User: Fold Kynurenine--oxoglutarate transaminase 1 from Oceanodroma tethys.
Amino acid sequence: FLSLSLQAKMSRPVQAQRLEGIDKNIWVEFVKLAATYSTVNLGQGFPDFPPPDFLKEAFVRALSGENHMLHQYTRAFGHPPLVKILAQFFGKLLGRDLDPMTDVMVTVGAYQALFCCFQAFVDEGDEVIIIEPFFDCYEPMVKMAGGTPVFVPLRPKAPKDGKLMSSADWQLDPAELASKFSERTKAIVLNSPNNPLGKVFSRGELELIADLCVKHDILCISDEVYEWLVYDGKEHIRIASLQGMWDRTVIIGSAGKTFSATGWKVGWTVGPNRLLQHLRTVHQNSVYHCATVAQEAVAQGFQRELEYYGKPDSYFVQLSKELQQKRDWLVQSLDAVGMKPIVPEGTYFLVADISEFKSDVPDVPDSDEPYDSRFAKWMVKNKGIAAIPLSAFYCGSHKNNYNHFIRFCFAKEEATLKEANDILQKWKREKTTP
Ligand code: PMP
Assistant:
């Protein structure tokens, strides 16, 4: 009996080769640390305030209303009311007629939209250009599709004397960017507004990318999940609206970020049918269908926003106003204690320089772990504030180039940000009083 059970034990390797080297995930590690130690969680990107009432009410209506069919499967590529309103809304923004059945597809969050893009477009040996720092899942997703990620960094320029650095000071070097395009390049991933820096790409920067895409006949996967979160009167420009780009761009969006409901996991893709038809192939052979009730509620949310478009009562207008205030609070708190903030133009993230705090968390020479990662772990354990090391947004071998920054999420209640401020002030006092 014993020998039989020994024989029954599997000994062959079970892991598919394409998973080689992508088993680690920063969120799994840091979400656990935050849950265990943090009093103030400014780590993972989600609001600690509720979504707007009109959205919650729409969900409740969908859930408990007359139409019991909302508890069943809906159309695989998107609940009809949602794709219709998305086509109308984005059609207006892009100034073109969109067919809800072919030019829009609903996904399980922006995450699945990204996954569909890489699976649909990337072949073995294809290269995909990724701008660093980047939302970390792009790299493993390209690799899982058999592709090779090619990285190009945003390079920081020193700010003017006495001024805080802005996310706009992080720029692409045009020659360096151009040098990454080759015959093997299939696509570039653009994320504007950018997580983690909060950079909002200017028209000039987008034109530079667009010209290269057209010249080399390359696709653009445009992750625009923070499209409504832009500050100081900045404008979010959609690269798909530039010359020659509609035909080669997939726009990715997220109801989680748009309506402060990240747990609903409703996302979408917008683009021409010739691209989206391949996303549908991936979707129908993997997820097939997204939660109907959540889609119905998001559809109603967009219906409401279409009515209020550009008006002061629009949630999109109000949210960015509120978040700009929260950004300013966190900028002030960090600046006051010498954790130099890079002022973001968009998103609800802010990256800060921890160089002045090195005496609290001494460097360990020759350590494999980037300094900011050890710092963030130390900070959550000893100070109760959770943040994410910037090195997590760089590829393996580049992690040590930008290892003295951490990323905070400021989509938090005033009380949460105040608590963070109190902890930082106390920390600063302890540092200065021997
Ligand atoms: N793209 C970016 C840049 C993000 O920051 C996130 C979420 N943090 C996503 C995509 C995934 O969005 P969702 O929650 O809708 O899947």
Remarks:
- The first strand starts at residue 40 and ends at 41.
- The domain at 53-308 is CATH 3.40.640.10 (Aspartate Aminotransferase; domain 2).
- Residues 66 and 160 are 61 Å apart (CA to CA).
